[in-house]
Write a structure and sequence with these properties.
- There is one protein chain.
- This protein is mainly α.
- It has one domain (about 5-30, about 45-180).
- The chain has helices at about 5-25, 30-35, 40-55, 55-70, 75-90, 90-100, 105-110, 115-145, 150-195.
- Helix 4 (about 55-70) packs antiparallel against helix 5 (about 75-90) and helix 7 (about 105-110) runs antiparallel to helix 8.
- The protein is globular.
- The two termini are about 25 Å apart.
Length: about 200
């Protein structure tokens, strides 16, 4: 088989895995939809978080920045990673402790301030759009190369797939799909590393 045929097979298997996981972990309650039922094992949660960090925005965009800017581009990588770690350590555990679904709800209740809640909403929207713009551009580039379509069509395909996962399974489906993505990414990272050693 040719390299292109193997590529199609591997991508098809990956998507079949993701779709199977999304169907298996379909949300059946509001709690499962918003917070995955609050019963995700910490190791599984860590794998999902790591897959989110190793995503298109991090892997393609940060690698591209370092490629074009050299050592100066690593500042962005350090800031990106440091911010992710700070968010995971200083904010995420308290959302669960306070029983809140969103960061603005937590901030507003924690500081007894409607203004703090509004500031958190603005920050969450700004950060989300910045992150999603990088993610979707990366997804669009990957699909445009893979399916020989333009980048805009690739972005629409990626948005459709993410919409399918999010609506079907909510946070529970997304969490377990991210775990599957983590396994695929680790495998994809390790194979070239191991082959380059021999």
């Amino acid at each position: 088989m040719s390299v292109q045929a193997w590529t199609f097979v591997m991508v098809a298997l990956s998507f079949a895995l993701y779709i199977g996981v999304a169907l298996w972990s379909k949300a059946r309650s509001t709690g499962e939809f918003y917070v995955a039922g609050s019963n995700v094992h910490p190791v599984v949660n860590g794998m999902a978080t790591a897959a989110d960090w190793m995503s298109a925005a991090s892997f393609i965009s940060m690698a591209g920045l370092i490629s074009f800017m050299g050592r100066d581009g690593s500042v962005y990588l350090l800031g990106w990673t440091g911010g992710y770690v700070l968010l995971a350590l200083l904010l995420a555990p308290y959302l669960r402790k306070f029983g809140k679904y969103t960061v603005p709800d937590f901030v507003g209740d924690r500081y007894y301030s409607q203004l703090a809640r509004i500031v958190a909403v603005v920050c969450a929207i700004f950060v989300s759009f910045t992150y999603v713009a990088g993610q979707m551009r990366g997804v669009g580039i990957v699909f445009s190369r893979f399916l020989s379509v333009n980048v805009e069509t690739g972005v629409l395909i990626g948005m459709g797939i993410v919409f399918f996962y999010a609506v079907l399974g909510g946070m529970k489906g997304i969490t377990y799909t991210q775990v599957a993505q983590y396994c695929v990414l680790i495998f994809a990272f390790l194979v070239p590393a191991i082959l380059s050693l021999s």
